[in-house]
């Protein structure tokens, strides 16, 4: 049996400092860990103002172990459901929504200590191939 996407996500468990190109002088903190007694990962990203802190609950469907389901909540009360995949170094998260599609794509380096990711969005309902770059993240493992 092959490893599920959620099992593969165990490579991301830990504490990370997080920086973005949008606010290069502000350092955020990301914690990725297993929810007690559950088959879910909790991803918490916290950053001082003017950044946006958010929480993800990451799980998988029993029938589709290669797919992740991500519930999002942020400090402004936004809540969304994303789809995702993790297959080794590549972590992808996406939301196809008319007028507000989003995608997050990142790679974990070979040491497992640096993860670089990009957020993009598209508000084009007629051409979902037109994506605008929003920001880049660099996650650096601290434990």
For the structure shown, list the relevant keywords.
single chain; mainly beta; Lipocalin; 10-stranded antiparallel β-barrel; 1 helix; 3% helix; globular
Task: Please tell me about this protein's structure.
This is DUF1579 domain-containing protein. It comes from Nocardia jinanensis. By secondary structure, the protein is mainly beta. It has one domain: Lipocalin, CATH 2.40.128. 3% of the residues lie in helices and 57% in strands. The protein has one helix at 5-8; strands at 14-20, 28-34, 41-46, 54-61, 64-74, 79-87, 90-95, 101-108, 114-122, 132-141. It has a ten-stranded antiparallel beta barrel with strand order 1-2-3-4-5-6-7-8-9-10. Strand 6 (79-87) and strand 7 (90-95) form a beta hairpin. The radius of gyration is 15 Å and the shape is globular.
Topology, please?
Layout: H1 5-8, E1 14-20, E2 28-34, E3 41-46, E4 54-61, E5 64-74, E6 79-87, E7 90-95, E8 101-108, E9 114-122, E10 132-141
Antiparallel strand pairs: 1-2, 1-10, 2-3, 3-4, 4-5, 5-6, 6-7, 7-8, 8-9, 9-10
Number of helices: 1
CATH superfamily: Calycin beta-barrel core domain
Helix content: under 10%
Rough outline: globular
- The first-to-last residue Cα distance is 30 Å
Number of strands: 10
Structural class: mainly beta
Strand content: over 45%
Report Rg: 15 Å
Please tell me the overall pLDDT. 91
Q: Tell me about the biggest sheet?
A: 10 strands, antiparallel, barrel
Uncertain stretches of 5 or more adjacent residues: none
- CATH architecture field: Beta Barrel
Domains (count) = 1
Q: What strand line-up does the widest sheet have?
A: 1-2-3-4-5-6-7-8-9-10
H/E element order: HEEEEEEEEEE
CATH topology: Lipocalin
CATH class: Mainly Beta
Protein name: DUF1579 domain-containing protein
